[in-house]
Design brief:
Layout: E1 9-14, E2 24-28, E3 38-43, E4 49-53, E5 57-61, E6 69-72, E7 81-86, E8 92-96, E9 101-106, E10 114-119, E11 126-132, E12 135-143, E13 152-158, E14 166-167, E15 181-182, E16 191-193, E17 200-205, E18 207-208, E19 212-217, E20 224-227, E21 237-244, E22 249-256, E23 267-271, E24 290-295, E25 298-303, E26 306-310, E27 318-321, E28 327-330, E29 336-340, E30 345-350
Parallel strand pairs: 1-30
Antiparallel strand pairs: 1-29, 2-30, 3-4, 4-5, 5-6, 7-8, 8-9, 9-10, 11-12, 12-13, 13-14, 15-18, 16-17, 17-19, 19-20, 21-22, 22-23, 24-25, 25-26, 26-27, 28-29
Length: 351
């Protein structure tokens, strides 16, 4: 779904035992492009981080964010890469929004990129990707694919680390509940790809006139859809991001991006087979575009007016920073959290 923010930041957050209320943000010196808006992020190790964003910009760090290599993808200088997935320090996939849809891959650290998927169709707008090993999935806004009058969320998959992509069969394309339901391309965190052992293929969240958490089964009878309690009903509101704790708990955040300070119905949690949702006693401090599960009961979330954390499974949230960000990502061993926000600033938040 199309919407616009103006600025970009990258922040590094060290997480050991947990957050403290005295955590402080220190801005670092960087050569990040100030005219770019980054929403895509992928962390391979504590040292290897990639980000992607507007005006063809991609960034890569191999030393935990101390130094960055910034690049503009040739022939895509005006394109917004809203999501990225990296396999290592040299190999990454980037996803371009709008029509035509394009997915590109590099195997030489961004020195060169090749188009591995392209699709031209009215209404095409890719929103997010997720990978599990070499298997990947990408989802886009609803489009008309037949003469039925229905609109389908456009889904493509890969099983060779993004070298090739295929659209799922028509009967496997999820149907949008109504024209005004879509997916926000806010942080690449609104789709989740299950592993091979699960009865589910993937999950995704929507917003707009209606907001759902959807589980798509490998067999159709396993499909489930839950209306979320997150603020919805207008094009600018709904769920923007979700997180899974690897066990049974799911968390969603959102709100209305046009009302960044509104805390009403901006977070909810539920268990995978339970239709009931749990609201926060103390919610995050405004609209949130990204949520990540850390470990045990710890969660982190960010939006354009700041960063919040929870140490009790999302029941109570406390502000960690007044600086706004679009996306956050946790390193594989849970020691670091990286954030992307506005105007190329890079900083560090430590206990």
């Amino acid at each position: 779904m199309k919407y616009h923010f103006l600025r970009i930041t990258v922040l590094i957050l060290c997480w050991n035992i947990g957050f403290s209320q005295t955590a402080a943000l220190k801005l670092l010196t960087t050569n990040a492009p100030a005219n770019a808006s980054f929403r895509g992020m992928s962390i391979v190790t504590d040292n290897v981080i990639w980000v992607s964003g507007s005006k063809g910009n991609v960034g890569r760090s191999a030393d935990a964010g101390k130094t960055w290599q910034w690049m503009v993808v040739k022939n895509f200088e005006k394109i917004d890469f809203r999501d990225i997935h990296a396999f290592d320090s040299m190999t990454a996939i980037i996803m371009a929004i709008d029509n035509p849809a394009n997915i590109l891959k590099t195997t030489d650290g961004g020195a060169s990129w090749k188009v591995v998927y392209t699709k031209t169709q009215q209404g095409m707008f890719l929103d997010a990707m997720d990978f599990n090993g070499n298997n990947g999935i990408c989802i886009g806004d609803p489009i008309a694919l037949d003469s039925s009058g229905k609109k389908y969320f456009y889904v493509i998959t890969t099983n060779d680390a993004g070298e090739s992509w295929q659209a799922v069969s028509m009967d496997a394309m999820p149907v949008a509940n109504r024209d005004e339901e879509a997916i926000f391309s806010a942080s690449g965190s609104n789709i989740f790809l299950f592993d091979k052992g699960s009865k589910y293929h993937y999950a995704f969240v929507t917003g707009g006139k209606m907001s759902h958490l959807n589980f798509i089964g490998k067999n159709k009878r396993h499909n489930k859809s839950y209306v979320t309690p997150v603020h919805q009903g207008i094009a600018s509101a709904g769920v923007f991001s979700m997180a899974f704790d690897g066990n049974k708990n799911w968390y969603v955040v959102g709100g209305d991006y046009k009302q960044p300070n509104n805390t009403e119905n901006n977070f909810a949690g539920k268990q995978i087979n339970d239709a009931n949702w749990n609201a926060a006693t103390t919610p995050p401090n405004g609209y949130r575009s990204c949520i990540r599960w850390m470990q045990k009961n710890k969660l982190i979330s960010c939006g354009t007016n700041g960063v919040d954390m929870s140490n009790d499974n999302g029941n109570n949230w406390m502000k960690a920073s007044d600086t706004g960000f679009n996306v956050c990502m946790v390193s594989p061993n849970k020691k670091l959290v990286f954030f992307a926000g506005d105007k190329g600033r890079i900083g560090v938040l430590t206990n």
